[in-house]
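Hey,
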Amino acid sequence: MENIAQFEPLTVNTHRDFRGHMKEIVTRLNQNPQLAKLSLVNPVYALSDLGVQLSAEMKQHVFETFHNPPAKRRRLAELEKEIQAEAGKLPGGSAISAAHQDRTELLFGTLKLERLSADHGKPIAGARLAAYAHQHPLIQKLVEYDVVRRSGLVFHTREVYDAYKRGEVKQQWVGSVRFGPNA
């Protein structure tokens, strides 16, 4: 990867600091397309390479905001209410757990669904739950909840980021990144 320009440090301790430096950060990103692309691998490391020194709290805030944006948090909250409402209709007002054994009991004990042959005698985990979604609205909600919960950007470790930065790993999944003035 080509040389990355050196920058005067920007110290960001709070969200207000971040917003105050946003124009400068966007300018730096847009003037350095390789770092703009690297921000998709790990924004905290890319910001650091841009001279943006984030406090520990702001690093956590960046990760949390990108991984759990407001729309995702809202949808999870809606789904939790819907799931609890459906669960309240079940015998005993069953509580819903993410544990595989509990989900298995829900499907075959509480809801009395018939096991698919591929699942005979096994706990129902992750993607296998989707095979039962058409059989009950609660299962549909649980599948959607699991998908939404796992969504969001995932950021790579320092080692992976540095491999991208050195060009050892190619970012073939994105051509370029440009940040707008209202970023």
